[in-house]
Structures are given as structure tokens and as C-alpha cells.
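Hi! If you just cloned this repository, the fastest way to understand the data is to look at a raw example. We've pasted two of them here, unedited. The first protein comes first, obviously.
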Amino acid sequence: GYIWLFRSLPLIVVLIILYNFSYLYDSLSLGIPFTGITWASYQTINVLGQFSTAVVGLTLVQSAYTAEIIRGGFLGVDHGQYEAAAALGLPAWRRTLRIILPQALRTILPAGFNEIISLAKGTAMVYVLAMPELFYTIQMIYNRTQEVIPLLMVGAAWYLVITSVLSAIQYLVERALARSERRSAVNSVRNNRVNQPARQPQEAVHAQLS
């Protein structure tokens, strides 16, 4: 239900709803429902300010997409790998950490980094909260100077720098993962050769002519 809900709602709608949440509930309380016992109570307008609303809204929406990416990564691992891992007799957490997760990461990493890049670009949406992020600051400047296009080009350049850095990190992480997989494969082949019994030399058979 959670994943379905926040994948269905646009980010800008979630941000506006959260920012105006104080119109529905003027206070947020922590306690035992239907008993009147309240341990702590806070004014909603003080809890959900500009920054906290942006963080909560981006987290709710992006975590729904990230959960689907992780689920797809684990579903992409062949079922035989789960059976082979269970046959080793390892605890469940070790099976997941040592056998299943490295294989799932091959699918999770590319899509996961795409979501991180989308999150970096999605921060421009918080301008609706009048929060001084990059796009909102550019808007404030070109409203004063009337230099719309040059300042938008500056903003585009900054977003290109941010996404390029994230793409470079993705490349380095994927290359390190591929190198680790190759090293593991080489070590596995080497261990198999060491564990194989040495071949016994065959005795030469001499045919006797009568």
C-alpha cells in the first residue's frame, strides 16, 4: 500500500500536502491511542517547516521507488542460487550477505544510482515551499536582474556538474564491483585446481613380441 501510494502521487503534490498539513492537524502527539495518555505534543507548523517538509517528502517518494528497485534486484537472482546457498548450511544472514546480495547488486546498482540522480534533480521541486535551494535562488536573482536565460544556463550547468559527479561515482563503484567479481572467480578456479587430486602417472605398457 505504501509503495503503491507514493509511486502514484507526484512529488510536488506530496510536498504541498505536507507543508499544509497543519490545516488538518494543528498538533502532533505521541502517546497511547484512545486512552488520553500523551507523552509529547508538538505544534505541526513547528515540526513541518520548509526544510523538514522537503526532507520528509523526498524521502517518502524516493523510498517507494528504491524499495521496488531492491525487490527487483533480489527477484533477479536465480532461484537455484537460493537453494545452493541453503545447501551450504550457512545462517540466513550470511547466505544473503555473502551469496545473494553480491548477485543482486548487479541489478540494483545501475537503477539505484539513476534514482539518486533523479533525487538530485528532484530537489528543484522544493521551490514550491519557498526554500532557498538552487532553482529557487536562481529565480529570485533573475526576478531582480531580468537576466532569465543566462541565469537558467548557470543553473543547468550546476545540475550538469552534480549529475556528472554522481555518474562518475556510479562508474567507479560498478568497476570496483566487477573487479571484485573477477577476483572471486579467479580465486575459485585456483582453489578448485589445488583441491583436485593429482593425477597418477600411468605406467608405460610394453608389448612383448613372441
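Ok, and the second one:
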Amino acid sequence: MIRLKEVIDRQKILIRSLRQQLTQKHVDLDAMQQQATRLAKLNASLRRKHFVSRQQADQLREEKLTLETQLNTKDQQIKQMEEHIHHSNNNSNNTESSICIDMSKSLIAELISPETPPPQLTEEQLVKQLNAEGKMIIDGRNPNRPHFTLQELRNVLIERNELKTRLIEVEEELSVYKRAGYVIIYYYYHHYC
């Protein structure tokens, strides 16, 4: 009987320790499930953020390409205008037409680099320039006369400068998103993997 009582006592102690282990395992399992749920939510959140930042980066790349294309088009238009002015200057025999073309060239130079001082003019040239300011003096019979106004040229140059500015802004924003994407991925892998 004493032996049976000892066996029962040992089994009670064993059952008690097994229950404690089982309870501890349940607590550990619950904690792991909560951690797995948190990690799944964090993973989903990071994937959404990564997807959004990737979409924004793709949009910025497309916008950058569009802006670069527009900028190249404007640069080509400016080059064509300059070539046309140069060609008109070489082929023109009319002095008033060449004065107008020289004024257009100097205007282009001033618009491109406003820091440069204007060229020194004689009194006669200055009077002609002041009388012709804002006007195009063109020989109507000259087949090589410019087919654009000074205002159009100004508008093209202003638009080109705006496009360059926007392109720089887009490139900066794109680099910010690239760095942010790297930081998110770096943070995720070093803290949860």
C-alpha cells in the first residue's frame, strides 16, 4: 500500500509538472502566434509601401523621360532658329534685315546667359536698335527671312528653362524615393529576418 501511495504521489508530481509545461507551451504558442500576426501585418504594410514607392518611382521615371524629350525638342527648336538666323544673316544683302538678325542673335545670347554685358554700339547703331526695339525689320522679298517672332523665341527659351528646372526636381524626388525604398528594405531584413 505504501508503495502504491508513493507511485500515486510520483504520478501526481509528474502530472503537475506536465501541466505546467503544457501551460507554458500554450503561453509560448500564443506569443509566437501574436508575433507572427504582427510580422504578417508589418510585411503587408511594407509591401504596400514598397509597391506605392515603386509606382511613384515609375511615374517619376516616365515624367523624367517626357521632360527630357520635351527639353530635347525645345533645344532642337532653338538650334533650328539659331541656324535659320545665321543662314539668313549669310544670305541677306539688306542691311536692315541683317541689323534685325544681329539683334535677334544678341537677344538669344542675352536670354541664354543674362550675365554677359551687351555689346558696345555706335550712336547710329543704338538709335536704329532703339527705333527697332520689339519690331522685326524684315525684307519681305527675302526668302530666307525668319519665320518666327521674338516673343516666340522668348517663349521657347522660357519653356526650356522651366522644363530643365522641373527635370531637376523630378530627378531629386526620384533619388529620394530610391533611398527610401532602400531604407525600408534594409530595415525589414535587418530587424525581422
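That's it. A detail worth noticing about the second one: Residues 48-192 form one domain.
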